Every structure is written in structure tokens, then in C-alpha cells.
Amino acid sequence: MSFTGEVNAVYRSSDTPPELEGPKTTSRFLATGALTDGHFGLFQWDMAPQAGGPGAHYHKTFSESFYVLDGTVRLYDGERWVNAVKGDFLYVPENGIHAFRNDTDEPASMLILFAPGAPREKYFLESAEIALSGRQLTPEERTEFLARHDQYMV
Question: Who's near 142: CB < 8 A, 6+ residues apart?
Fold first, then answer.
């Protein structure tokens, strides 16, 4: 029996510009769910000093994993906050409460893996657009926006 492969790999150079650049965070959408045929999504999330981060939340339809590349990232596992440093990892199954933030005076960087490959880039891009425009969502609009992106605040 003989096996053959396909020429279908996708290369992304380290000098590819980030898809999202904000005053406090920069994100590189390394592999979107669309690219991986819905198997996973992988983003690099770079945070400026004192960038903060989202409050405690959960997702119903995908898991999320965090791998710290540099600096100190505060990770919340649903029970406690930890100061995660280079090489530390947090896996959050579906419905798992979690959060992350950079509260330090130094930049921090991490990889975020979503599985299956939810279109999280739409959430981050739309969030940035709302913030940059200065638009304030009503409580009803905020609830709808978050639910549309499978993000439920605790």
C-alpha cells in the first residue's frame, strides 16, 4: 500500500503584520478557524504594560488554552488568579470560567488556542471597532453582542 500527501501547508512569516493593533493589545491571527477548517484557532496576544483584560467569562461551544510566551499574565481558572510566566499553560474546557489580564508594568505575550476553531477574530475585531469608535453599547446590545460571540460574563 502506498500513501501520498498533499501540498497544502500554509506558512506565515514572523514579519506578517498583526491583524489587530490597539493601544493596549496587538493580536496576530496565526490560524483562524476558517484556515484550519474549523479544527482550531491560534492567536498570539501581545499586551502592553497595564493592559488589563476581560472579566471572568465562559464559552459554551469551545475550549480555550493559554500559553505564556513572555512577561507575566494574570490567569483566572474559575477559582483563583495566578501569575503565569513564560512556559506556563492554562486549559479551559467548554463552560469553564476564566479570565486573563496584564496588570504589570512590563509587556506580556501569550498564545491563545480555541478548539474547535470558533471565529474569535470577529469578536476581537468588533470589540476593537466599538472601543475605537467610542460607541457605548446599551446593556441589551452588550448582552446580544457577547452572546453572538459565545461569550458569557460571570
Answer: none
